[in-house]
Write a structure and sequence with these properties.
CATH architecture of the largest domain in chain A: 3-Layer(aba) Sandwich
Number of helices of chain A: 15
Order of helices and strands of chain A: HHEHEHEHEHEEHHHHHEEEHEEHHEEH
Number of helices of chain B: 23
CATH class of the largest domain in chain A: Alpha Beta
Strand content of chain A: 15-25%
Structural class of chain A: alpha/beta
Number of strands of chain A: 13
Strand order of the largest sheet of chain A: 3-2-1-4-5-6-7-8
CATH superfamily of the largest domain in chain B: NAD(P)-binding Rossmann-like Domain
Keywords (chain B): Ubl conjugation pathway
CATH topology of the largest domain in chain B: Rossmann fold
CATH class of the largest domain in chain B: Alpha Beta
Largest sheet of chain B: 8 strands, mixed
GO molecular function, one term (chain B): NEDD8 activating enzyme activity
Distance between the termini of chain B: 45 Å
Oligomer: heterodimer
Organism (chain B): Raphidocelis subcapitata
Pfam families (chain B): ThiF
Strand content of chain B: 5-15%
Radius of gyration of chain B: 29 Å
Largest sheet of chain A: 8 strands, mixed
CATH architecture of the largest domain in chain B: 3-Layer(aba) Sandwich
Largest interface: A-B, 84 and 94 residues
Family (chain B): Belongs to the ubiquitin-activating E1 family. ULA1 subfamily.
Shape of chain B: elongated
Distance between the termini of chain A: 51 Å
Shape of chain A: globular
């Protein structure tokens, strides 16, 4: 039984009409009813953002919420992940967070999933009305993005089928700064469209670490990346193991002493090795609430929505900026299909080679499987033996029934992808110019001056 | 220095100590905060501060936990229905962090302030939430008279309001996000010239050549340029291009005539602007130096532990004398391609000069103190160095009183008219006017507009009238609050939505942390958050 007046604040927003509402807003008690019954929200992450998002959802009328997190609670989470206590350290975040919200907010039904996002099938993800991301890694964001985009279907005229759209709301913070964005696949840009928003990680050249260290971080990375594999070969480094971290710290201290470099501390060692992003409760609160507000708007149209990116900076005064980023019409993940030109007589192998050399497709795949409709053309894994012979056959033969010049929609999958990509193959007679362009691109991969490989930042 | 044997406190606060350091954390751990009203806006603000580890808080609130609280506040529980809200919120906030002390007073904040003006004395910061203008004016005059910082925060429908009030806030470590390195190549001092001249670059073997720090490459190229051109650095676009060609010409060519990959030369080309860019004083710092408080008289008012204005006066003296118009050198250099030894030697050259500058600033301060008849009361050890290292980051924020902002004779009507007229700020300035109008409505009607079903239309007309009154009173002639926003204010009838409260609580906690740690820069003026457009505006009224 709901207490009289409990939702009086929310009801004003949902039950009264206004001039600054979203398109097709239909105020009335049905909206809150929808939030409390049929609407299902998925929250990815039960960390700094996730804890806030779950609380904000429960107090914005949402009832059926699922949360996925593969992590367990650490002491360093307690400065912001307010659902956790010292006695929870070591327990799964998703489970504890769900328990706390359900206990505090009457009626809330938060269901935890203590697992990786990759462990759940597309059928799981397709069940939700909207998905909110409270993640700290670009890789996980890209995975979820491609999952949501793969659920999108296009009409014959190339417009997105609205009933298949799975909106994403994404938040991220670092120190006093953060962002919130709304991704409506097929309508607003997806992660892949605006990948350039994420700056590359700083990496130190191995030769600097090995020969000319100049900073405390250089000494730490030397111990972590070079000494470890030399002196503890065969043992996998675990950043969460205190003995391992201490070992790196001591070796780094020793190296810094030898070179006369100041500044190696245990705290810095952890920061460098684990690439720790500083985080505080207040910024997470702002960004999470902005995300849940946008989710509420997207689901009910109770107010005009964010289009489509909000940047928040609180370190120098308070400054916000909203930007309407634009979709990449040839995005391999959210568009109706990436256009791939191939010569009319190209074989399947040649088409696969063109995909791997393609500037956007190439970075998304390593060992693609290709199918056309329900017909597998070349598949990795158990079907490989049966389809390998197709590699040498011309596409024209494999795509029987389609004209030589016609475009064919191929479905391409790869281990690196969470969901298949759409590739629109267009075969044409000339190939010389295109091939030359591709060769030029392949040749411009920059080489490091010392010819040594860049040290990987994440291990 | 922390060690692997860290106690749980530094582990617990690790992610924030990386932002404000041990010093910032210890300031936070000494802070006492008073919260007035503990609805969602107040509870959320305090939640973020309790998690951060403030010393203590006190909640003042007269309400009993109602059904409404269960719909918008996380720090009440279903079983606490009917209990004092202050008590329940305090208990649930304390549960998050056993290091924080918390207490409550079950009384209306307005009444407490009236009955016991000395109450605010016990706190470093007062966070006043969901209070209307008349009560805020009263509270402000009390806080100003007691020297306590005030932060007023409000969530109202899809709008938020925040305003800080205190005479001034000074910051040494404003920690700007990006800053150009200060290499002083346009004004090399003897030790730097000597260091650069000690390289016979031509004679080095290839391995050594590519490890010469780029600062040396630019400095040498600049010296020879100056010798040829009568001392002037490259200034026209053509000269700069020519200078860059010279730097590029320093790149070794391999046996096949192929230029060698030399990262130090690449870096020198990217940093070539240091050859002609004079070190500058940021406008905010210039304002500090030109401030009337940055004078030798600051020595009279100097109290140990608050060196800001005395050091600003000493800094001003340094700039006018030894500095030759420049701020002291910070003493740090960016990482650059070089051998360990050369890099560390170059670092020492910069550090030594920075130490000399800091000593000069400290000497100015000592002279000022002596002249004021307060010798021996010198600045704290290392304070001058810290100040000099942050010379480009110094900031002062001054706050007008809320009383000045609203009184017709001192209100900035033109600024408001401008904000109402400009596309980028019109909506948010409208919300500002409408919030003030809503308070007037509350004063006369005893409730906020749009609260009662069936009265929404009538309230809207009244609210628009009051908004016009506010605009006219402050002299913002010709301007008006947007009608759509007046409708929206009435539609939402002073609802305190959890998400809006969480955004405002987050921003308020950030401001509180900036004020308490004396790091980063708090906003000056009045902040309006517009949850409809997801924008904020800071109005200087």
């Amino acid at each position: 039984m709901e207490l009289e007046g409990r939702w009086q604040d929310l009801d004003k927003l949902l039950a009264r009409d206004g001039n600054l509402v979203g398109p097709g807003f239909e105020p009335g008690p049905e909206l809150r009813e929808f939030l409390q019954t049929d609407c299902r929200v998925l929250c990815i992450g039960a960390g700094g953002l996730g804890c806030e998002i779950l609380k904000d959802l429960a107090l914005s009328g949402f009832v059926n919420v699922d949360v996925i997190d593969m992590d367990t609670i650490d002491v360093s989470n307690l400065n912001r992940q307010f659902l956790f206590r010292m006695s929870d350290v070591g327990k799964p975040k998703a489970v504890v967070a769900a328990e706390r919200v359900n206990a505090r907010v009457a009626g809330a039904r938060v269901t935890p999933h203590y697992c990786r996002i990759e462990d759940l099938p597309p059928s799981f993800y397709s069940e939700f009305t909207i998905i909110i991301l409270g993640l700290d890694s670009l890789e996980a964001r890209r995975w979820m993005n491609s999952m949501a985009c793969s659920l999108l279907e296009y009409e014959d005229d190339g417009s997105p089928d609205m009933s298949t759209i799975k909106p994403l709301v994404d938040g991220g913070t670092e120190g006093f700064k953060g962002h919130a964005r709304v991704i409506i696949p097929g309508v607003t840009p997806c992660f892949e469209c605006t990948l350039w928003l994420f700056p590359p990680q700083t990496k130190f050249p191995l030769c600097t670490l090995a020969e000319t260290p100049r900073s405390a971080a250089h000494c730490i990375e030397y111990a972590h990346l070079i000494l470890w594999s030399q002196q503890r070969a065969g043992e996998e480094f675990d950043a969460d193991c205190e003995e391992h971290m201490k070992w790196v710290f001591e070796r780094a201290t020793e190296r810094a002493r030898q070179y006369g470099i100041p500044g190696v501390t245990y705290q810095l060692t952890q920061g460098v090795v684990k690439n720790i992003i500083p985080a505080i409760a207040s910024t997470n609160a702002i960004i999470s609430a902005a995300c849940v507000l946008e989710a509420l708007k997207a689901v009910t149209m109770c107010s005009s929505g964010l289009n489509n990116y909000l940047m928040y900076t609180g370190s120098q005064g308070i400054y916000t900026h909203t930007v309407a980023y634009e979709k990449d019409e040839s995005c391999p993940v959210c568009s109706a299909g990436v256009l791939l030109q191939a010569p009319a007589d190209a074989t399947l192998q040649q088409v696969i080679d063109l995909m791997l050399a393609h500037p956007t497709l190439g970075r998304l795949m390593a060992h693609p499987s290709v199918s056309h409709g329900a017909t597998p053309l070349y598949m990795r894994g158990v079907l490989e033996d049966g389809t390998r012979a197709n590699l040498g056959r011309p596409m024209a033969e494999l795509l029987r029934g389609e004209g030589v010049e016609a475009a064919a929609l191929l479905t391409v999958n790869d281990k690196k992808l969470s969901a298949p990509l759409r590739v629109r193959l267009r075969r044409r007679r000339r190939r010389r110019r295109r091939a030359a362009e591709l060769d030029g691109r392949a040749g411009c991969r920059g080489a490091h001056a010392c010819m040594c490989m860049r040290a990987p930042r994440f291990v | 220095m922390s060690s692997p044997g860290d106690d749980s406190r530094s582990k617990r606060y690790d992610r924030q100590i990386r932002i404000w350091g041990a010093e910032g954390q210890s300031r936070l751990e000494a802070a006492r905060v008073l919260l007035l009203n503990c609805g969602p806006t107040g509870s959320e603000t305090l939640k973020n501060l309790v998690l951060g580890g403030i010393a203590a808080f006190t909640v003042v609130d007269a309400a009993r936990v109602s059904a409404r609280d269960l719909g918008n506040n996380f720090f009440v529980a279903p079983e606490s229905l009917g209990e004092p809200r202050a008590k329940v919120v305090t208990a649930l906030l304390k549960e998050m962090n056993e290091c924080v002390a918390g207490s409550y007073v079950e009384t209306p904040p307005e009444a407490l302030v009236e009955a016991d003006p000395g109450f605010v004395d016990r706190f470093d910061l007062v966070v006043a939430t969901q209070m209307t203008e008349p009560h805020l004016l009263h509270l402000e005059s009390l806080c100003r008279s007691k020297g306590v910082k005030l932060l007023a925060v409000r969530s109202y429908g899809l709008a938020g309001y925040m305003r800080a009030s205190m005479p001034e806030h000074t910051v040494i470590e404003s920690k700007p996000d990006t800053q150009v390195d200060d290499l002083r190549l346009t004004r090399p001092w003897p030790a730097l010239r000597e260091f650069a001249a000690s390289f016979n670059i031509e004679a080095l073997d290839d391995g050594a050549h590519k490890h010469v720090p780029y600062v040396v490459l630019i400095q040498q190229a600049l010296e020879s340029w100056r010798r040829e051109r009568g001392g002037a650095p490259p200034s026209t676009a053509a000269e700069r291009a020519e200078f860059k060609r010279r730097l590029a010409g320093m790149r070794r060519v391999g046996p096949e005539g192929v230029p060698m990959e030399e990262e130090n030369v690449d870096e020198a080309l990217k940093a070539a602007f240091h050859a002609w860019t004079q070190p500058s004083i940021p406008p905010e710092v210039r304002r500090v130096l030109e401030d009337e408080r940055a004078s030798p008289a600051a020595a009279d008012a100097h109290t140990p532990g608050d060196d800001f204005w005395l050091l600003a006066a000493a800094l001003r003296a340094f700039v006018a004398n030894e500095g030759g118009g420049c701020l002291p050198l910070e003493g740090s250099i960016p990482d650059m391609h070089a051998t360990t030894d050369l890099y560390l030697r170059l670092q020492r050259v910069y550090r030594a000069e920075a130490e000399a500058h800091a000593a000069a600033v400290e000497a100015h301060a000592a002279r000022m103190l002596a002249a004021a008849g307060r010798p021996g009361g010198g600045v704290a050890a290392g304070a001058a160095r810290h100040f000099c290292r942050n010379a480009r980051n110094l900031r002062v924020v001054r706050y007008r009183t809320l009383a000045e902002e609203v009184a017709p004779e001192s209100a900035r009507g033109e600024a408001l008219a401008e904000a109402l007229g400009e596309e980028g700020t019109a909506a948010n300035a409208s919300l500002y006017v409408l919030l003030r109008a809503a308070d007037r409505f509350h004063s006369t009607h005893g409730s906020f507009p749009g609260v009662l079903e069936g009265e929404v239309e009538a309230d809207m007309a009244a609210l628009k009238g009051l908004a016009q009154q506010v605009v006219a009173e402050v002299g913002a002639s010709g301007a008006a609050a947007a009608d759509d926003y007046a409708c929206e204010m009435c539609r939402l009838g002073a609802a305190e939505l959890h998400v809006v409260a969480a955004v405002m609580g987050g921003m308020a906690a950030q401001e509180a942390i900036k004020l308490i740690t004396r790091q980063f820069v708090p906003f000056g003026g009045t902040l309006i958050y517009n949850a409809i457009t997801s924008t904020t505006s800071v109005l200087d009224l």
